[in-house]
Amino acid sequence: MEKEVCFRVRFKPRSSWADKVFLGNMLMEVLGVVSKSTSAFEFEVESVD
Question: Which residues have C-beta within 8 Å of that of residue 42, sequence separation ≥ 6?
């Protein structure tokens, strides 16, 4: 069975253009780059309201 680790990340935007969509896409992009370059993990991102 694969081990799963969960984190909750809170963004506190300082600019109006840094909305939920932008921040979610940025998080996915960063995690995707690290995941592909290291092959150390897979990830899922879930929006929490």
Answer: 35
Say what the pTM is: 0.79
**End-to-end alpha carbon distance in the chain:** 30
Q: What is the mean pLDDT of each run of 10 residues along the chain (49 residues)?
A: 88 95 96 96 90
**Cα pseudo-dihedral 29, 38, 43, 4, rounded to 10:** -150
DSSP string for residues in the chain? -------------SSTT--HHHHHHHHHHHHHHHHHHH-S---------
